[in-house]
């Protein structure tokens, strides 16, 4: 098994365990920010340990772009695995999460001052009734919080973050750690 994939598998397991523990304790919805930050932390750790493991096995000097490539490989494996798990999680394990988020958006739409919204957005709401507005908000929420969209956002958003993180990690690795690892 390749080094970046092994690293990704380890940290994907950590993230999955975190998410399932929060689900089992009933805190997943309440501590969703913890889930998001846990995902980011696991992504970062995957990238850092991916390059560390790679450099340990391949100590020869390589270029900056090679270091970016190794960190991105680890990140890509991690994000594909986590995205697949996210789809499975929201479509089969915790279907209520999606339903709760949709209901929250509908409740916000119901409480909104429709006449004031109509004044602020005349071109968007001029031919709509309050019920049309609520139905549109529900439809939009069902799209945004669908398992497919959530897992796609994990993948796409994660890849964008991983690209920037990989540039910083590869630079930091070369600046602070590479010489110490080579000397050992």
What does this structure look like?
The structure is a single chain. The chain has eight helices and no strands. It is mostly helical and 184 residues long. The chain starts with a helix and ends with a helix.
- Major sheet characteristics: none
Radius of gyration: 22 Å
SSE class = mainly alpha
Strand content: under 5%
Task: Give the overall form.
Answer: elongated
Q: Total number of helical segments?
A: 8
Question: Which properties best describe this structure?
Answer:
mainly alpha; 184 residues
Q: What is the topology?
A:
Layout: H1 3-24, H2 32-57, H3 64-93, H4 95-111, H5 114-120, H6 122-125, H7 130-144, H8 147-183
Provide a compact summary of the structure:
With 184 residues, the chain is mainly α. It is 86% helix and 0% strand.
